[in-house]
Write a structure and sequence with these properties.
The complex is a heterodimer of chains A (364) and B (279). Chain A contains 9 helices and 21 strands. Chain A has 364 residues and is of the alpha+beta class. Chain A has 2 domains: 226 residues, Rossmann fold (3-Layer(aba) Sandwich), CATH 3.40.50.300; 117 residues, Nucleic acid-binding proteins (OB fold (Dihydrolipoamide Acetyltransferase, E2P), Beta Barrel). In chain A, strands 6-7-8-3-9-10 form a 6-stranded mixed sheet, with helices on both faces. Chain A has a 5-stranded antiparallel sheet with strand order 13-12-11-14-21. Chain A has a 4-stranded antiparallel sheet with strand order 2-1-4-5, covered by helices on one side. In chain A, β17 and β18 form a beta hairpin. The two termini of chain A are 39 Å apart. Chain B contains 12 helices and no strands. Chain B has 2 domains: 58 residues, no CATH class; 200 residues, MetI-like (MetI-like fold, Orthogonal Bundle). Classes of the chains: A alpha+beta (364), B mainly alpha (279). At the A-B interface, β6, α2 and α4 of A face α8 and α9 of B.
Chain lengths: 364, 279
């Protein structure tokens, strides 16, 4: 039970920078998710916390202790790996009790703690089996059980669900969340899957090229992405981004979405754009939806032909083209859609995001 | 038609097998018959008279009659066993280091070890003889053990390196976050998983020591130090060769090796790591 603190953490492989000047404080009991594309430094960060990777510079504190020079075994953190890494030559029970046996914990205590973990994770029937006799989900559960048994200060998860099929992944995701509520421990969780990040995290860190792009609660990073990268990375389907010219007409500012398609700039943001000729605007697919009549001021309507429709049951995703770029729109009351059909779309102007086209940062 | 084809196929297999096994069979058969029968022309395939005369001769413990085979057998066992244990201990640690650690000149050192293996042993016999004579370890089991260890270490490193590489490095990492030191992780997790590979390496290096002739023939000349392959030459006299005796001692050599191989064989089944990681 402890907080984890990273100060100015840097990792270099030769000249290649994996993680650069990372500052981060993870309070006790937080579920923190590091998310980003592959090679962004998220796994390296996790491995540095675990002690499996040497630090080039900076400091790591677990609890109040500086652990830079400590071996993984002395850091009292437990790690769950993507490929489970169960000990193949031991039974489930031996796998679970291994860390305690190494720590020379009393046999009765081992028995007790293994029993606890077995009950939490529903592994009762499987105790005598070897890892090779378990299914993917069961192996994952044993891997988590092995981490629980140690009662570590923090759990480290390195893409633990990536090897599971889609259905099982959703199920295990829920289990991990429940587990966190039950154990009340600090968790640092690495994933490249933004859905996992959104659903699990108390706080998300989006990383890219070794830097932190944004930190915030899932809703915060979803609603207020600070740059184009975060905007397109978080959310599924990704946010629609369009590079548009700014047209000034009758004292008002318009965005040219397509030839002769002018979208008015919301008045609250007009003053920010007086010096600009070009910007990038981002619209989430749910903020650009088919509509028959939207007379309210915050909506702006235009007509367009459908290129493609993907029905998902609860919704249908409609693909249209603006400035030769594919734009995805969500239709919440699906009906049969014909390709080429002309549909009226309404854009929620209050929810559009405007980014600088050079720095790619949000204009606020 | 198909049946005939099948039968034909199996006859072919049998014929090829016999061809391969023929020298072995000849040795075995010849060990149990008198010398003159071995030399008969045309060859007499099935002995007229079976005898264990040569065996009783060499194993008559109270003062040997022909060749002190028991002493040679003991020498062979001691030398092979010790050289194997030492070579495998050093070799598996070396193999682990090459598989898991990155250090300066790693590839060059590895290449060097392999090249050392490429030097024909016999070319070392004279320098070794002179060196050992000066050191006073000629005609000792100790000397031979040193040489065999030197021969076997590169080979066992090469073999165990491959086996350790097959074990995902997450195994040791998870063990280390589970509270193990690096050595504990090696001992409790990686070593048991590499067991079959280490067993294979051990058998190979045992057999190499057990069968080695060229160097031992230079380094051992006394009854107290000679191994079985060298002892075999005791049957070679100036004017006669006791083929039956030679074959008998060859059988003594072959049998333990075969038994050992069969015993360990079932432990060599790999695939033990399956299941620990996503398979």
């Amino acid at each position: 039970m402890a907080k984890v603190e990273l100060k100015n953490l840097t990792k270099k492989y030769g000249d290649v920078i994996a993680v650069q000047n990372l500052d981060l404080s993870i309070p006790h009991n937080e579920f923190l998710v590091l998310v980003g594309p592959s090679g962004c430094g998220k796994s390296t960060t996790l491995r540095m916390i675990a002690g499996l990777e040497e630090i080039t510079s900076g400091e790591i504190y677990i609890g109040d202790q500086l652990v830079n020079e400590k071996d993984p075994k002395d850091r009292n953190v437990s790690m769950v790996f993507q490929n489970y890494a169960l000990y193949p030559h031991m039974t489930v029970k031996e796998n679970l009790g291994f860390s305690l046996k190494i720590a020379k914990v009393d046999k009765k205590e081992i028995e007790k703690r293994v029993k606890e973990a077995v009950q939490i994770l529903g592994l009762d029937e499987l105790q005598k089996r070897k890892p090779s006799q378990l299914s993917g989900g069961q192996r994952q559960r044993v891997a988590m059980g092995r981490a629980i048994v140690r009662r570590p200060d923090a759990f480290l998860f390195d893409e633990p669900l990536s090897n599971l099929d889609a259905k099982l992944r959703t199920q295990m995701r829920t289990e991990i969340k429940k587990l966190h509520q039950k154990l009340q421990t600090t968790i640092v969780y690495v994933t490249h899957d933004q859905v996992e990040a959104m659903t699990l995290a108390d706080r998300i860190i989006i990383m890219k090229d070794g830097y932190i792009e944004q930190i915030g609660s899932p809703i915060e990073v979803f609603n207020n992405p600070i740059n184009v990268f975060v905007a397109t990375f978080i959310g599924s389907p990704p946010m629609n981004i369009l590079e548009v010219d700014i047209i000034k007409k009758d004292g008002k500012i318009y965005f040219e979405l397509d030839q002769d398609v002018l979208m008015p700039c919301p008045e609250s943001k007009a003053s920010l754009l007086s010096q600009k000729n070009q910007v990038m605007i981002g619209i989430r697919s749910e903020d650009i939806s088919p509509s028959n009549s939207n007379t309210s001021d915050e909506f702006w309507c235009f007509e367009k032909n459908i290129d493609l429709a993907e029905p998902l049951g609860t919704e249908t995703q409609l693909f249209i083209k603006l400035k030769n770029k594919e734009i995805i729109s969500r239709m919440y009351n699906p009906r049969e859609i014909k390709i080429g059909e002309q549909i009226n779309f309404a854009v929620n102007l209050n929810k559009i995001h405007i980014f600088d086209n050079e720095t790619k940062k949000i204009i606020k | 038609m198909k049946q005939i084809k099948n039968i034909g196929f199996w006859f072919l297999v049998l014929f090829l097998l016999l061809l391969i096994c023929l020298p072995g069979i000849w040795i075995f058969v010849s060990a149990f018959r008198p010398n003159h029968e071995i030399l008969s022309k045309p060859a007499n395939w099935i002995p007229d008279r079976w005898t264990i005369f040569e065996f009783t001769q060499m194993f008559s413990i109270k003062g040997y009659v022909s060749v002190p085979a028991f002493q040679y057998l003991m020498n062979s066992i001691i030398i092979s066993l010790f050289s194997t244990i030492i070579a495998i201990t050093i070799g598996m640690m070396g193999g682990y280091a090459f598989a898991r650690f990155n250090f300066k000149g790693k590839n060059k050192i590895f290449l060097g070890l392999m090249l050392a293996r490429a030097v024909p042993g016999i070319s070392l016999s004279l320098p070794l003889f002179i060196l050992f004579a000066k050191l006073g370890i000629i005609n000792t089991s100790f000397g031979v053990i040193i040489v065999y260890v030197a021969m076997n270490v590169p080979f066992t490193i090469w073999l165990t390196d491959g086996f350790f590489r097959q074990i995902p490095k997450e195994m040791s990492e998870v063990a280390r976050t589970d509270g193990c030191t690096r050595f504990q992780a090696f001992w409790n997790v990686e070593l048991p998983l590499a067991g079959p590979g280490i067993g294979a390496a051990a058998i190979f290096s045992f057999l190499l020591s057990w069968n080695e002739y060229a160097l031992a023939s230079v380094l051992t000349r006394t009854i107290e130090s000679k191994t079985l392959p060298i002892g075999m030459m005791d049957y070679l006299d100036e004017f006669t060769i006791n083929w039956a005796g030679m074959c008998a001692i060859a059988v003594v050599m072959i049998v333990p090796a075969v038994i050992l191989t069969f015993m360990v064989q079932k432990h060599l089944v790999s695939g033990l790591t399956f299941g620990g990681v996503k398979g």
